[in-house]
Amino acid sequence: MNKRGLKILVVDDEQDYCNVMKVILEANGHMVSVATSGKTALTILAQKTFDVVITDLMMPEIDGRQLMSEIKERFPGTEVIILTAYGSIENAVDAMREGAYSYVTKGGDPGELLREITKLHRVLDLKQENQLLKEKVNQHDSMLETSSPLFQNVLATAKKAADSDTNILILGESGVGKEVIARYIHENSPRANKTFMDLNCNAIAETVLV
After folding, report:
1. Who is most buried in 39, 46, 87, 142, counting CB within 10 A?
2. Are residues 156 and 124 in the same domain?
3. Quick one: which of 173, 180, 189, 191 has its CA closest to 151?
């Protein structure tokens, strides 16, 4: 899981409750801002980026569901956790159908909310890792799209090497694309359905490699 805490905005029309939530969440390593109305929350969201908004369901003027709807439309990268009283759980479930990440009973065990935040943290970390992987794949694909006759010859040679069943040594300065060629050979080989292992030998002691 990512070492940094989440950026959280707590929204509740009771200032004392906001203050208590801020203390609890910051004690668990998160960065917390508070707002005592949906209108104020939207103003803050327009100025700063947050990972998640934790909002009370029942609030005057803009309630939690209305706030969530605005967040999903205007700040789609921000998740929402709904705080609800025992008698409003049905409304909280409806909010989840409309896009809320989850709901937690207000006034209950703070551990319940912390567990939901931990789960969300893992989900956001996975999304970030997937995005980095997609960017790496896109970079890899773009490097292989070339009109250079010289590089086309390199790819043709690599493709021939992929058909062999021998060890292949790729030499070159750091940053010239040795890993890209290695992946290309793997993807065009009979072993393409096997795992490609990217191993940095510089990070391994010489005595281990021998």
Report:
1. 39
2. no
3. 180
